[in-house]
Structures are given as C-alpha cells and as structure tokens.
Amino acid sequence: MSKSDNSPEKKGKATPKRKDAVAKTKINSITAPVSKADRAKNREALKAARAEARAAYMRGDQNALPARDRGPVKKLVRDYIDSRGSLGEYFLPLMVVVLMLTLVPSVEIRFFAIILMYSAMGYSVIFGFVVSGRIKKLVNERFPGESTKGLGIYGWLRSTQMRRLRAPSPQKKRGDSI
After folding, report:
1. What are the angstrom distances between the C-alpha of 1 and each of 5, 6, 7, 131, 140?
2. Which InterPro entries does the annotation name (predicted)?
3. How far apart are CA 160 and CA 86, in angstroms?
4. Euclidean distance between CA atoms 90 and 114, whole angstroms
5. Burial of residue 159 (number of CB atoms within 10 Å: 0-12, 13-18, 19+)
C-alpha cells in the first residue's frame, strides 16, 4: 500500500482559527450581534446614563440612592450632620500634617505630632458617642417608633468625611436649622 491510498481526501479549505470557530457557534439569544459602531454608540449612552445617575445620587434623589442612604430618617441624619461643623471632617488633613511632622528630626516635634494624632483620635471617638446619642434622640422625637439601629455610626462616619467629599452632597449649609 502506498501513502496516498491510506490518506483521506483533502477538504479543500483551510482550518478556521479557533476564535472564528467559537464565534460562529456562540449565539446570544438575548441580544443581536453588535458592530463596532453600535458598541461605541452604546458605550456613549451608558456613559451618559452613569453620569446622570451619579448626578442624581449626589443631589440626594431618593430613587438614585443605595439602600444604606435611602429614606427620610437617613436624610434627617445627613441634614443634622451637615448643618453642624465638626473637627472630625479635618481629621484626614490633620493626619497628613502629623505624618509630615514625624519626618522632622526633632524629638520634641515628633512627640508633639504623636500627641496631636492621639488627641484628634480621642476627640473623634468621644464626638462619635455624643453625636450618636443626639441623633438617636432626634430620630425618636421626629419619627417615633422608628428603629435607630446603625444611625449613630452612620452619622458619625459622615461627620468624619471632609464636607466636599461627602456623598450624597450636603443639602444643608452650616448653621441651617433642620
């Protein structure tokens, strides 16, 4: 027997690349095949939708808020915190200053920086307990029977964020009544 007798006939075309073969068999029953132009258009539409959703979230629209920020009680807590000033919102910049002071070769200055850091942390924790009690009292007055679970920590954490970086954005100015 010769070699040509045992070999199968040629198929007449090149074997397709794996990605082309897989793409042929892959069928998405939900969406139609999309061209590059359609993808770019969809990408722009998604980008615009995300920007609008972010703007609504920052405005405090109830429908755009996640579950942790939704509801009149959480709005009251946000307004309460935003209408008052707190040293806690300057905690992060203060820690940057403390970090810079610890790089100074003077032992006295480094000691002062450490004392400053611990006193700021202590103040923040004590303020957290005080503001938590005030928030719970206010919620019990305005929304009797409503659960106050987690509201104190929610308010305290908001008070430790820099005002410009709070999300949703503050709706009240400092000194406004709630």
Report:
1. 7, 8, 11, 96, 98
2. DUF3043
3. 8
4. 16
5. buried
